[in-house]
Specification:
The structure is a single chain. Helix content is 51%, strand content 10%. By secondary structure, the chain is α+β, with helices and mostly antiparallel strands. The chain folds into 2 domains: 17-180 and 210-241, Alpha-Beta Plaits (2-Layer Sandwich), CATH 3.30.70.1730; 247-298. Strand 4 and strand 5 form a beta hairpin. A 5-stranded antiparallel β-sheet has the order 2-3-1-4-5, with helices on both faces. It comes from Pterulicium gracile.
């Protein structure tokens, strides 16, 4: 008869359950009532996803895939994102010559209300919200979510501020650096340890908790109904854009350039330069007419 420790069932490795996001239309079973009724908890999360997707029409949403994040580690990640956004605001105010914000100033309270928000999302409910939401490009969403497995988080920004988004992305890379691939020696060592005989035969091996390293992957950005994937460099393109204020200033400069050139021309033509300026215009018109006449003759 085998010893008592060997009669116990062998402990198998626990597999983590992963979920996929399905944007395709669900199958209609004959036994299911339509429309489906959800519980209060699922309806609450569905409304959150719907509001987030509706906000993407004016502000960007960053889709993140996270793995092996504990609750304290997720809290620290949220704090790092908030600090990166506030530090960017401080630098912008310093460059504009504005005074720094104080804890008691009303502008500081407004800045706190406009901090980015990182929210963990239930993948199944997110898929249902994406199916029902009409303001997003469905084929691009399917390409983005086809390879996603596991927990998903969405980072929502209060305004469309590409430099702030770029600062947050740099902070994410520093806070959660990518995990380096395992070397052949490490893989061989793990395999030998797995296949090694127990030190004390007949006894249950001591359970050793595996040290997991958190991983964070930026999947894509959704803004104004368009999807920008990281694989094609779309995320960097969005983060490399200028702010709306800078773009408006560039447009105003382009529109005011002809008026400025005319004003400079009139300034040069003032006084005794009027005759020379008009004579130069006359000569340029005559040369243009002569060139047109030559072209007509050749034709």
């Amino acid at each position: 008869m085998l010893p008592a420790p060997l009669l116990r069932p062998l402990r198998t490795q626990c597999l983590r359950r992963t979920y996929a996001i399905s944007v395709a239309e669900p199958k209609q079973h004959p036994d299911k009532r339509l429309p489906r009724t959800f519980s209060a908890d699922k309806q609450y999360h569905y409304n959150i996803c719907t509001r987030l997707l509706a906000s993407s029409l004016s502000t960007p949403l960053v889709f993140l895939q996270h793995t092996d994040f504990s609750a304290p580690r997720m809290i620290k990640l949220r704090r790092d994102i908030t600090d990166a956004a506030r530090n960017h605001t401080k630098r912008q105010r310093a460059m504009a010559g504005l005074p720094p914000l104080t804890p008691t100033s009303p502008e500081m309270q407004d800045a706190e209300n406009q901090d980015p928000t990182l929210r963990a999302i239930r993948t199944g409910i997110l898929g249902a919200a994406l199916r029902d939401f009409e303001g997003v490009d469905k084929p691009s969403i399917e390409r983005m979510t086809s390879s996603l497995r596991g927990p998903i988080a969405i980072l929502s920004l209060p305004t469309f501020n590409p430099p702030q988004l770029s600062a947050i992305l740099r902070t994410l890379e520093k806070t959660v650096p990518p995990k380096p691939p395992k070397t052949p020696d490490q893989l061989k060592k793990e395999l030998d340890l797995k296949n090694a005989d127990p030190a004390t035969p007949g006894r249950r091996m001591k359970r050793v908790r595996e040290e997991r390293t958190p991983e964070l992957k930026v999947v894509g950005v959704v803004v104004e109904g368009r999807v920008f994937l990281k694989e094609g460099g779309g995320v960097r393109e969005v983060a490399g854009l200028e702010t709306l204020g800078t773009l408006r200033a560039q447009i105003v400069g382009m529109l005011s350039a002809p008026a400025g050139q005319l004003a400079a021309l009139l300034g040069e033509a003032s006084g005794g330069r009027v005759a020379r300026t008009l004579d130069g215009f006359r000569k340029s018109l005559e040369e243009a007419q002569e060139e047109e006449g030559k072209k007509d003759v050749e034709a």
